[in-house]
């Protein structure tokens, strides 16, 4: 059994938030830090969480999946940025310049 110390915090829930983490109009979250004021949270107090790691648990596959997803997202963002740059270049190249007759 593994035990960790966390801190429960609350902040006003957004209209779209629902579920077991929303209680009486407040979103409840657990953090390792006791001061989350900068993020809009009020401290409820410390709490202890106990859990058991599944036998043979290995996070490697999940970590690789997360990295692959991040790579896909960054690649898409990169291609979108390059496409915008190419569009700007094309627009600039399409501008016709005719010098005035002297």
Question: How is this structure best described in words?
Answer:
With 102 residues, the protein is α+β, with helices and mostly antiparallel strands. The chain folds into 2 domains: 2-51, no CATH class; 58-97. The chain is 34% helix and 28% strand. The protein has 1 helix and 4 strands; from the N terminus they run E-E-E-E-H. The protein has one helix at residues 60-94; strands at 2-12, 22-23, 26-31, 42-51. It has a 4-stranded antiparallel sheet with strand order 2-3-1-4, with no helix packed on it. The chain starts with a strand and ends in an 8-residue tail after the last helix. The mean pLDDT is 91.
Briefly characterize the structure.
This protein has 102 residues and is of the alpha+beta class. The chain is 34% helix and 28% strand. The chain folds into two domains: 2-51, no CATH class; 58-97.
Helix/strand structural class: alpha+beta
Radius of gyration: 26 Å
- What is the share of helical residues? 25-40%
Residue-averaged pLDDT: 91
Give, in order, the helices and strands: EEEEH
Structural domain tally:
2
* Beta-strand proportion: 25-35%
Contiguous runs where pLDDT drops below 50 for at least 5 residues: none
Largest sheet: 4 strands, antiparallel
Distance between the termini: 89 Å
* Distinct helical segment count: 1
Question: Based on DSSP secondary structure assignment, what is the total number of beta strands?
Answer: 4
Shape: elongated
Give the strand order of the largest sheet, numbering strands 1, 2, ... along the chain: 2-3-1-4
